[in-house]
Amino acid sequence: MEIMKVLGRMVCTQRVAGLGHMNLRILENNKGKKLVAVDPVGAREGNWVFTSSGSAARFACPNPEVQTDLTIGGIIDYWEND
Amino acid sequence: MEIMKVLGRMVCTQRVAGLGHMNLRILENNKGKKLVAVDPVGAREGNWVFTSSGSAARFACPNPEVQTDLTIGGIIDYWEND
Amino acid sequence: MEIMKVLGRMVCTQRVAGLGHMNLRILENNKGKKLVAVDPVGAREGNWVFTSSGSAARFACPNPEVQTDLTIGGIIDYWEND
Amino acid sequence: MEIMKVLGRMVCTQRVAGLGHMNLRILENNKGKKLVAVDPVGAREGNWVFTSSGSAARFACPNPEVQTDLTIGGIIDYWEND
Amino acid sequence: MEIMKVLGRMVCTQRVAGLGHMNLRILENNKGKKLVAVDPVGAREGNWVFTSSGSAARFACPNPEVQTDLTIGGIIDYWEND
């Protein structure tokens, strides 16, 4: 799993049915790259989280056939970035 | 999911049966790399979209055994590139 | 899917049973890296092709349990490299 | 599988149900990047381990539908880093 | 599939049950990075091999639920490195 920071929400009204109404977050990884993740844990802006990618990202959702390749797995209690 | 920009269509008459007649788009990621994605949402040139990769890309298609590893998941309402 | 150029054939007599007698091609990606792909479409040296990776690579073969992680998905009609 | 070094434990009380109470470790790869992995072998700080990613990471756990994309596969008996 | 060189064996007595007694090899990719792979073909030090990653790596083993994400697929008859 990778460690990322939550930047904010993502607004995307036109999307595939496979994503349903799941919350999407914009995250930033340690190289400053912005990514989009499904959020089942309720992370907020500024939180440090860890994310699962690949097929593991789908198993974190109620429906494992959902179209996500990145899902927030948890909010880190304490993290000091390098 | 990654954030990419739609550059245009891709013409490819000679392809595997597993892709059927699905629309293919040429996308550009944040490093300027060009990639090919299946488009089930009808994105147009210049749109900012987010894409799912891996097995999630297949679940966005009617047939989850289709041969795609990159599928457009939605068109972003508003995006300002860095 | 990624865009690559076909460099030639690959000779490999000693290989796992899971690959059977499928044709193997040496491809070059946009960074000059050489990769090996299964070719079900009959691409020739100099062709520009797009490739599927991961589990999608397996679904392009008659047997989806074949041991490939990169398969040519189609030959691009026209491509002008940067 | 990749070779990584164990830096320590990771505290994360708020996480998805799919991870249960599995131990999480912070690892460092050869580029100095910190990653989070599930640890079923009991690795300790300073150990050199190898990790499996993707769907293989899930098959190392009792429940193959667990939400992990990185799992420690073993502790290396002897390793001298470059 | 990627092209790599076999550096030697890997000794790892403490490992997950999912890997059984399969032979592990240390490989080096074209960037000089060392990786660990399962070897079902009997490659020797100095051999050039190609490897399959992801779920394809598992299908090369007798048990497709084994915990490997990198498996040697074949020994290349002739290879001249750049």
From TrEMBL, chains A, B, C, D, E:
SUPFAM superfamilies: EutN/CcmL-like. It is found in: Carboxysome. It holds the Pfam family EutN_CcmL. Gene3D superfamilies: EutN/Ccml (2.40.50.220). One of its GO terms (cellular component) is carboxysome. Keywords: Bacterial microcompartment, Carboxysome. NCBIfam families: carboxysome_B. This is Putative carboxysome peptide B. It comes from Prochlorococcus marinus (strain MIT 9301). The lineage of its organism: Bacteria, Bacillati, Cyanobacteriota, Cyanophyceae, Synechococcales.
